[in-house]
TrEMBL record:
The keyword Coiled coil does not apply. Belongs to the LysR transcriptional regulatory family. Residues 1-59 form the HTH lysR-type domain. This is LysR family transcriptional regulator. Keywords: DNA-binding, Transcription, Transcription regulation. SUPFAM superfamilies: Periplasmic binding protein-like II (SSF53850), Winged helix' DNA-binding domain (SSF46785). InterPro entries: LysR-type_TF_proteobact-type, LysR_HTH_N, LysR_subst-bd, WH-like_DNA-bd_sf, WH_DNA-bd_sf. GO terms for molecular function: DNA binding; DNA-binding transcription factor activity. The keyword Transcription regulation applies.
Amino acid sequence: MDLSLALRAFIRTVEKGSVTGAARDLDISQPAVTKHLRNLERHVNARLLERSARAVRPTAQGQALFEVSRAALASIDAALEGVQRDSGRIEGTLRLFAPACIGAQCLHPLLLEFQRAHPGIGADLVLDGRTVDLVYENFDLALRYGRPEGTDIVARRIGTVRRVLVASPAYLAAAGPIDTPEELAARPLVATAGALSERDQLMLIKDGHIQELAVRLLLRTNVAQVLVSSLKAGHGPGPVQTLLVPDELARGELVRILPDYEARPSELFISFPSTRFLRPAVRAFIDFIVPRLKAVDGID
């Protein structure tokens, strides 16, 4: 039995919650994963997994083995990558997580640039708005809005992502100009959930003073491209992160309204598990993207 591969199959099965997910992640067949799991249980003479029609979960003994073996294999992988780094090579697969808007607009282009410089780097990029458990879901790093909590996570602040109020010239020509916050509140808006408070209020900031507006929503979306295209199509005015629309503002496809005001900004952080051995590929990617993210127009 290949104990290392059996442990990796076991770890991936627990992380993914299924044999299918583990097989896909390891790029081996499902029967091969099942065989590795069976051999591992025979080797330790214990049942490690509870199997049901919907999911696979670790037993108490399986959970203990999962936590220890994952940390041990991570240390081994880090040591091996350290040798590669010392030889001038950076290789391995990065598992990355980010909100869809910042991930597509900023993280993805930087990842491609990093991969061009290091052809031995592969990546698994997940873009989603949910809160992710980096350790349990085996992500190397994540971008997120707001400082993450937990003693097992290291967080580095990137900066403040600004939001401004915009509309299309066609919308303003048809519906009339917007000269005051009260006039804005009277118009149905298009927005992302992150731009609003939990009570669906729009926070406006002028000279350090905060004003909250009760607004009506014509469209709420979690996809940045949908927001931008809706604004450009004249569907309504709304708040938008400036880093999403630099070209549209420069070309006049969108124009700022209430330019003395900005909408609620978001604090952007990069976070990664606080393991003792940070893989060299992960460390190199962090060192690569942090200064570039800080230099993005719209992140202060």
